[in-house]
Write a structure and sequence with these properties.
With 109 residues, the protein is of the alpha+beta class. It is built from 2 helices and 6 strands. It binds ligand 2BA.
Length: 109
């Protein structure tokens, strides 16, 4: 058995949910926050059989858009206070960030 962990942008998560449900996949969603942008995203936890993994990744990819966002980058030390001007940098976010893990044991009690 496998666990697919997929970080999806907030704007895409409903479409991904609907598409997964339509195909009968079971999943849990967790509200999460990106470490760089500090913006909300959604993490899907999908327990499944090995044979389904590629299909799941395909569904997630088909409904996750790549977007460009500006992020303010601060230097690591801000000294003296008041002299630091953050410089906006463009980053590409998404489609989705996907991890596939082996599940050692799965129980529903
Ligand atoms: P954030 O951390 O907010 O990152 C947003 C985007 O900023 C990333 O898009 C990437 O293009 C850029 N970025 C983030 N950290 C970077 C770094 N150290 N160097 C260069 N660019 C960086 P995505 O790669 O599409 O990631 C979207 C979200 O997926 C991330 O939001 C984070 O929540 C999650 N994620 C991505 N990679 C991850 C990882 N290795 N482990 C855990 N979560 C991850």
């Amino acid at each position: 058995m496998k666990l697919v962990i997929a970080v999806v942008q907030d704007k895409d998560h409903r479409k991904v949910m609907d598409a997964l449900l339509e195909r009968g996949y079971q999943f849990t969603i967790v509200a999460s926050t990106g470490g760089l942008l500090r913006e909300g995203n959604v993490t899907f936890l999908i327990g499944t059989e090995k044979e389904q993994v590629d299909g799941i990744i395909e569904v997630i990819g088909a409904h996750s858009k790549t977007r460009e966002q500006l992020v303010n980058v601060f230097p690591p030390t801000i000294e003296p206070i008041g002299t630091c001007i953050p410089s906006p940098v463009k980053v590409q976010v998404g489609g989705a960030t996907v991890f596939v893990l082996n599940v050692e044991r799965f129980e529903k009690l």
